[in-house]
Please model this.
Amino acid sequence: MFAAYFIEAGLVLIVVPWSGFWDRNALTSIFPASREWFASPFLRGAVTGVGVITAGAGLLELASAFGLRRRREEPHPPAPPA
Model:
């Protein structure tokens, strides 16, 4: 469940800054001076970067849930004398 939330939140943060929804948010209607700041490609890129990190964390969590992470090789115990 934790992994699914991170993946979904990451994908939203990746897509939304580049959609029309981003331009029509409530903050720009309340604070018209913030419109220029929200239109900045640097802010959009930063939000997208946070989304990539969040989605990546979700994928790593999902991989660990399925045991796909590399495990350290444990030394084999010595064989019993024959």
